Amino acid sequence: MDKTCNITQADSAAAVHHLTQQTLAALVHRIASGDMSGVHIPLATPLFCDRGKGSHYHSRPELFLQVSGASRMRLTTGLVVCEAPGLLLIPRGVAHHESADSTTSPFCNLVFMHGPGYFSYHAGLPCGTSHGGITSIRIGGSCNAAHVYGSQLYGYLSEAADLVTAGHPVSHPVVQGLLLTHLGLLQVIVEQTAQRPRSAESALVSRCRRLVQEHLTDTRLSVQHLAGQLRCTPDYLSNRFHRDGGVRLTAHVNHERCHLARHLLRTTQWNIKEIAARCGYADPGYFSRVFSQLEGTNPREFRAAEVRRETGGGRKNESGGTR
User: Fold this and answer.
1) Which residues lie closer than 8 Å to 48 by C-beta, 6 or more apart?
2) What does pTM read for this prediction?
């Protein structure tokens, strides 16, 4: 790949946006030609269980595009190494811990995090002292984009991961098609963002979003805890998040936790206390109150309604279809 955007400059949002355009164009071309080399969709068990120091899992799939160097992803089932130019899809619920390997070339990857109608992306860059070429990773420049596809966009990633979980190889034509559709849409949205620039989130808010995702299941997660991590006051962080993101930080945390709770209520037999704990709520009663406020029904009623919907002719998936 011809990276006219120097990796050492990937601390700026403009440079990351340009690098993302280049990376997506090259990857879409490669996958469209049938080349699935370097594409990784790992399996790991147990799901939604943090079993390693520094590990975390997400309520939605997370996408890594390796630009240079290699990502070393530690899972409960072992180590996955994604070398450049590569794609690594971490399915929702898979606990992972990432480190940078720059033994062969300078490390840089692009990380995409999705929500309903938006996604954010940033450069991952090496941080701290290298031990044999292995270092921790920090966030470089960050960007965000809105779109009209809702949850359908990250639904393609979930469907691809589900097919691999069911035993299909990454090279399966349907897996290839789902990834290509997702990446093609990302490419269009990123290009449209360049043509119609919108106000970007501050680096502080982008880092805050990342911390929320990484610590979503931690019962200590709060505005105060996040502010301490980001070295600012809680009031400043809350106001800046509201100004940039259009929603209160506490509401954002609860929304993300309840998104995860909905999935667990649909797909597991865990009781409400277990689900509350896996969503970061120490008090099941408080979890039920928050869930009821956001969903208009309590967790038990939500689960019962999902069971009725499934037995009554197919339940809706997160992309809006039925299965």
Assistant:
1) 57, 93, 260, 264, 268, 278
2) 0.88
